Amino acid sequence: MTALLEARDVRKEYVSGRGAVTVALEAVTLSVPAGEFVSIVGPSGCGKTTLLNCVAGLETFDEGSLTLDGRPITGPGPDRAVVFQDASLLPWRTAFDNVGYGMAVQRRVPAAERERRTRSLIELVGLSGFERHYPRELSGGMRQRVNLARALATAPELLLMDEPFAALDAQTREQLQLELTRIWQADRVTVLFVTHDIEEAVFLSDRVVTMTGRPGTVRSVLDVPLPRPRDPAVKRTPGFAALEEEIWHQLHTPATVS
Amino acid sequence: MTATLTRTIRPPATIRRRRRFRGRKLVLGGGLLVLLLVVWELAARANPHVQLLASSPSEVAATLVAFSGDGTFWSVHVLATAEGFAAGFVVAVVGGLGLGVLMGWRRGVRETLEPFVFVVNAVPGIALIPLFMVWFGYGFTYQVVVVASWSFFPVLLNTMAGVRAADPALLRMARSFGASTKRLLWTVALPDAAPLVFAGVQQALTHAVTGIVGAQMWASASGLGWVIANAAMNIQVEQIIAATVVVAVSGALLNELLGAVARRWTR
Amino acid sequence: MDTVRLLRGGGFLLVVLALWELLARSGWVDPVFTGSPSGVVTALGELVSDPEFWSVHASATAVGFLAGWSLAVVVGLPLGLFMGWYGPVRDLFEPLVMTFYSTPRIALVPLFVVWFGFGLPYKLVVVFLAAIFPVLLNMMAGVRSADAALVAMSRSFGASPVTVLRTVVLPASLPHALTGVRQAVAHGLTGVVVGEVFSAGTGLGYELNQAAQLFRTDRLFAIVVVLAVAAVAANEGMLLVERRLTGPRASTASRSPRSGSAARSSASRSA
Which chain B residues touch A132 with a CB distance below 8 Å? Predict the structure, then answer.
């Protein structure tokens, strides 16, 4: 499988007003094969969100290279879409219009097609009947579904997700994890998923990247050979637990000097 | 064993659930207004001094009727007031919005212009009337400039504040789809700032009404402000009050209209 | 305040002043019309050193302002309290208050001249009517903003209405009250100048009028500067008091002397 996203030795530093330098990302190297679901797990402040922002083109980096399908990433573009933790729905537009917002901004899809995609995605994310609702009339979980639908509507090559379920209650989170894996199974879009929740990462992904922070760097990459499609029951299998334990171990022990 | 610890505590007047009947404001407040009008009318009839100096509701009403039938009142005075008001108000809103967006969006522009805006805003508006009369004379331009200068700042300051405070999460989301600056402003920043912008425009409306009246009272040959100033010179109190009523009612109506538009356009 | 910001803002001001000065000296326009920074500075110097300016005009304005403003505070705060607290009182007075609030008080100035002449009583009335509304409306909003949960808590301990007022409502409304009193300063200053501009006699407004009639633009600007400085100083002074008295709680309205957030929000339906 060809690598869709390639990061090589990416380094990013922040310089504060007083000249103090913080290294957010150091020698980050990873590749995301096309059609795979890859998670990045790490504690808060390890740089995973920064890395995601760089891939999204919302932040610049200082050294190294980031390419998507061979093309260097220089800014936001229609080949990527982001699902943020904050649903960021325009409060003055209906769910329907919000789903269409990304496409409208990018202006690459004609109106009729936009309408068609919006309708089918609303159904896909399970929001049929709520098209005319405003964000304030929707629950947190429903807003995240709109968020996801909006991102998928632009038909990106790479879907970026930044802890999308972290702000939801446990039950909604589980429900949405299930929905996400079901949706992904049908579509197989390449996903880069950031989370601090190990169980979530193992359940959803084909591959888990662990990152440690200060400075942010890739600790290890683990394959998740669990069968697809994934069922919630898999969470209680010994294989699952072993993966979780290995990841936890990776996150909590220092890397041996090579 | 259980001594009666309870005594009947009478709830204080303020939480007694007295049924607040919906028309209470109308009855009490309206009643007070009617009462004051009646007292005024009676005082005027009892004492000719009062009639002379303060007019009376009946005389004011008669004057209003006379005004409404008087063609010149409408075609000359009301028109002059409306024109000056409208022109100045539109200039102020358009200018205030434009500059407010610019200053709210770009830090460089804001930092450069902010002290200047602060200085000009600190000048009490009334001082601008004589100044502008010196610069622009007595005509239409002078009136428009006075009205615009009085109503410009609420729009500018509120728009600037609103755009500055635009939800950063929404902006980031739009940027992630590659939105251009124009799109960001038009589809996110301005709608998000709408409540503040409308508040500014409403304040501007009030200032504009006062401005046109003040400008016309000071130096003009026509308009409702002139009517008031002229009536004052001839001690025709009923005209002063009647013209003031016309201005106040129009202002209130416009404000209601603006409020309705604001409610429709903001969520 | 970092250097870049200072340079940008200060630089722009200086550029404007320089252009103004150049325009006045260029000969394209009559400097008597435009005034000039140097002319204004000179006029300002004359004003400041003129004892009559201070003892007659400035003091007349100050006295007129203080009289009207203090009356507005003394009347507005208790009235705002009662109107905020007691629904019936509010329903009784609110239409009357809003009627006056929505009339352009500038139109009533000639009427007041007819009734009161040009002296202190006239100025007091004009300033009072200008300054009462921020005080009243902000205080009302402040009282109504008292957290209902806290009021309920207080009552649950059997507190009398007076105690509830004293221990919960008044402290809660303090920031609003101070904001209203501060905004009343700006409104009152404008009021006294408006009153003086439209009358004969003494005061800074009257001097403004005179300077305009005589086309002494530099002197006009100088008086404007005095007024602006007074307004800003008063506003900043009151902000300091406000911050001192309300401690870590942020002040409820903007720093601008003229914007009345509470006044507007409760008077949104009238001009």
Answer: none
Inside any domain, residue A134: yes
Chain B CB contacts of C95 below 8 Å:
25, 29-30, 32-33
Give the C-alpha distances (Å, rounded to integers) separating B191 from B152, B176, C5, C127.
20, 19, 29, 38
Confidence band for A15, pLDDT divided at 50, 70 and 90: confident
Residue A233 lies in a domain: no
DSSP-derived secondary structure letter, C71: H
Residue A124 sits in the same domain as residue A219: no
Chains that touch C (3 or more CB pairs under 8 A): B
The range of the structural domain enclosing residue A119 comes to: 89-155
My answer on whether A3 and A119 are in the same domain is no
Q: Which residue of A60, A82, A88, A107 is the best one to mutate when testing the B interface, meaning the one whose CB has the most B CBs within 10 A?
A: A88
- CB within 8 A of B239, min separation 6: which ones? B63, B227, B228, B230, B231
Q: Would you say C68 and C125 are in contact if contact means Cβ atoms under 8 Å apart?
A: yes
| Residue C116 contacts residue C57 (beta carbons within 8 Å) | no
Classify residue B75 by its DSSP letter: I
C14 and C45 share a domain? no
For residue A241, is it within any domain? Answer: no
As a three-state string, the secondary structure of A129-158 is CCCCCCHHHCCHHHHHHHHHHHHHHCCCCE
Query: Same domain for C10 and C40?
Result: no
Q: What burial class does residue A51 get, using C-beta atoms within 10 Å of its C-beta: 0-12 exposed, 13-18 middle, 19+ buried? A: buried
Asked whether the beta carbons of residue A76 and residue B175 sit closer than 8 angstroms, the reply is yes
Best mutation target among C23, C36, C90, C91 (most B Cβ atoms within 10 Å) is C91
Shortest CA distance from C82: residue in chain B: B14
Instruction: Check CB contact of B76 with chain A, cutoff 8 Å.
Output: no
Q: Is the pLDDT of residue B1 over 50?
A: no
| C-beta of residue A74 within 8 angstroms of C-beta of residue A57 | yes
Based on the structure, what is the number of domains in chain A? Answer: 2
Ranges A40-44, A168-172, B104-108, C253-257: which has the least confidence: C253-257
Q: Burial-class residue B245 by CB neighbours within 10 Å (0-12, 13-18, 19+).
A: middle
Q: What is the pLDDT tens value at each position of chain C, 271 positions in all?
A: 588 888 999 999 999 999 999 988 888 888 888 889 999 999 999 999 999 888 899 999 999 999 999 999 999 999 999 999 988 899 899 889 988 888 999 999 999 998 998 889 999 999 999 999 999 999 999 998 888 888 888 888 888 888 888 888 888 899 899 999 999 999 999 999 999 988 878 899 999 999 988 989 999 999 999 999 999 999 999 999 888 887 765 444 445 554 443 333 333 333 3
Distance between CA atoms of residues A31 and A9, nearest Å: 11
Q: Could you tell me the residue range of the domain that residue C8 belongs to?
A: 1-34
**C139 with C170: CB under 8 angstroms?**
no
Closest CA to C210 of C199, C20, A19: C199
ipTM for the complex shown:
0.82
Q: Are residues A23 and A59 in the same domain?
A: yes
How far is C176 from C182, CA to CA, in rounded Å? Answer: 10
How far apart, in whole angstroms, are the C-alpha atoms of residue B229 and residue B250?
Answer: 19
Residues 6 or more apart whose Cβ sits within 8 Å of residue C40: C218, C221, C222, C225
B181/A contact by beta carbon, under 8 A: no
HSE at residue A79, side-chain half, CA atoms within 13 A, is 14
| 3-class DSSP state of A67 | strand
Co-location of C109 and C12 in the same domain: no
Threshold 0.90, pTM exceeds: no
Residues A12 and A106 in one domain: no
In a shared domain, residues C84 and C200: yes
- What one-letter code names the amino acid at A103? M
Place of tokens 């739009």: B174
Q: Which residues contact C9 (CB under 8 A, 6 or more apart)?
A: B111, B112, B113, B114, B115, B116
